[in-house]
C-alpha cells in the first residue's frame, strides 16, 4: 500500500462526566485523529495524548507538531508492505510515541481493510469477546463512589478500578471493600506516591486487591521493585513501560507482576505486540489500558485485547460512558455479561461517521503525496 494522503484533525469532545485522577480533572477532550489513505482504502488512528503534559510529556498539540512536521512528511508517498514497516521509516524520532501511534495504528487499520480482514485477525488475536472493567475517577465523596460502583456492576462490568491519591486512599478502599467484599477490585495511583508511603501499601494488602497500578514515579522501576518486595498485592506498571525492552527489565528486577498495555504509550501495534509477547513468555498477564478515547481509539483497544495474553479485564468500555454521541457506528456496546464482542467487518470493524466528526472538528490539515 502506498500512502497517497494523510489527514489530521483535531476534535473537541465533551465528556459525559468529568474524570479526576491524581494528576487532574478532564472535562473536555482534545483528540487528534489521523486518517491515512492509499488509492483504494482509508485507515483511522487516534492520538491518545492528553490536553496537558500530566499523564505523560505529550499533549495533543505536541503530537500535532510531531505528526505534521516530522512523521507525516517522512511517511507520505512511501510504499508499505506492512504497517509493521512504519517503525523503520520513523526510526530517527525519539519519544513522542503517542504521536507516532496515531499514524501507526491508522496504517494497521488501512492494511487490514486492504486485505479485507478484521484488524483483530490481522494481529493474530484469538479472543472473540473481551472482558471489560471500568476505571472510576476520584469522586467528591465516598457515597458517590459507592453509588457509581453499584451502577457499573449492574451494567455487567467485571472489574472495578478506582483512582487513588494522597487523602483519597486507605479509608476509601476500606469503605468500598466493606460494601463490596467479593468484587474484583484494584486501584490506580498514577504515580502519586513514594517509598515513604510504604506503610500505606502494606495496609492495602488487607483488602485483597487484584493489583496496585503505578503507585510510584512515572519513570521509575527500581523503587517499584523495592516496594513489590515488601507487599503481597501485585504491582502493575502503566506509565513506566514504553517498550518491550522496558517490560523485560521491569520483570527482571521484580518491579511488577502485571503490565497495562496502551497503544499510544508504546508507539503503536508493533511495539504492543512485542510487549505482549515478552510478558507472555515470562508468565506476566497483561490488560488493555484506556485514555478516555473516542470510538476510533476504543475500537483499536478492542482489537488489541483479542491477543491471548490479555487475560485480565481491561479499561475498555462502552461509548456511552464517555460520549453523548460517538464518532463511530455502531457505538461500542458492552453486553450484560460485561464483554465486548469482536466485529468481523474489515479493519477496526466500526464505521467512522465523517459527518459527526466534522461537527467536532476545530482544526484540520490534509497532506498529499
Ligand atoms: O492511568 O489508566 C490511566 C485515563 C487517562 C489517563 C490515564 C489513565 C486513565 C484511566 C481511564 O484510567 C481509562 C479509560 O476509561 O479510558
Ligand atoms: Mg493507569
Main β-sheet description: 7 strands, parallel
Helix content class: 25-40%
Q: Reading side by side through the largest sheet, how are the strands ordered?
A: 5-6-7-8-9-10-11
Shape, per Cα inertia axes:
globular
Bound molecules: 2-succinylbenzoate, magnesium ion
pLDDT averaged over residues: 98
Number of strands: 15
Question: Which oligomeric state applies?
Answer: single chain
What secondary-structure arrangement, pairings included, does this model have?
Layout: E1 5-21, E2 24-37, E3 42-47, H1 60-75, H2 86-89, H3 97-115, H4 119-122, E4 129-131, E5 134-136, H5 142-155, E6 160-163, H6 170-179, E7 185-188, H7 198-204, E8 212-213, H8 222-230, E9 235-237, H9 244-253, E10 258-261, H10 263-266, H11 269-281, E11 286-288, H12 295-304, E12 328-329, E13 339-341, E14 351-352, H13 354-360, E15 361-368
Parallel strand pairs: 5-6, 6-7, 7-8, 8-9, 9-10, 10-11
Antiparallel strand pairs: 1-2, 1-15, 2-3, 4-13, 12-14
The chain binds 2-succinylbenzoate and magnesium ion.
What are its keywords?
369 residues; alpha/beta; 13 helices; 15 strands; 34% helix; 21% strand; globular; binds 2-succinylbenzoate; binds magnesium ion
Structure in words:
The model has no long low-confidence stretch (mean pLDDT 98). With 369 residues, the protein is an alpha/beta fold. The protein has 13 helices and 15 strands. The chain has a seven-stranded parallel beta sheet. Bound molecules: 2-succinylbenzoate and magnesium ion. The site of magnesium ion has 7 residues, from loops.
